[in-house]
């Protein structure tokens, strides 16, 4: 996968990592941290203490393992002194808001509570760079488990777990579309690399609601919602772009194919939207389903219904596309 949009795959760190020098972390500044009250530890500001508290000093002591590079920056794994493994994302381009506005958004993120949302733990603010810290999810991303892993995690992607993943994704999206209802893009960057899988295959959405933090040219370059047909053709953006992204993920999970939509150069992968549309028009829907799943289940009709929902989410005209509430309603009706 050459495109930098998909480089950040959150692979398990067993043999995909390399250490960084401690000196690459920002230097601790206790005065700046203390000026932000009890939540400022060193220069790392906690917004969610469910995994305990830690500060910049812990980051300075921790060896950092490189997880990947994405359009907005780099991601590393580090183990805090309290034993908690975290992902630290170094964001270079989050420069739309000044300090007070950025602080307010981070506190808002830290208050989010939903079983399918990865709530950040802490952050660090500098004008030229931001650090976002969240819990490390060991199974990795949906992208990795679907396309990169051929071990146990991949073999366990049976119909029940794939349906569980899709249900969790759409429930998380429904939550974000309520919490950030005033935003043009409540998520803005839904794709399989930004869906992390817990040990029980319950999905966690990450990298959501960044739209307000980015200048428009950067958002257009880095956020997947800007690949929606209405933006590509008319430079129009709305919450329906999130639904388009949801549809891509649904089709990806059901077919097992890597979507070419993720690649900015258009080279590689499968155009899942056109492929599904053509097959449906020719009544060849069964051929679309991942043979690893369809051959081991008696739920073919349920799988086909979910495939049709995914296709309805990727309608080229947003007015014909499902909205999030209707997508949730229809997906909840699909049975194992």
TrEMBL record:
Single Gene Ontology MF annotation: ATP binding
Domain Protein kinase, chain residue ranges per copy: 61-336
InterPro entries (alphabetical): Kinase-like_dom_sf (IPR011009), PRK1-6/SRF4-like (IPR046959), Prot_kinase_dom (IPR000719)
Domain of life, per lineage: Eukaryota
Region (Disordered): 1-40
Gene3D superfamilies listed in its UniProt record: Phosphorylase Kinase, domain 1 (3.30.200.20), Transferase(Phosphotransferase) domain 1 (1.10.510.10)
UniProt-recorded name of the protein: Protein kinase domain-containing protein
Organism of provenance: Morella rubra
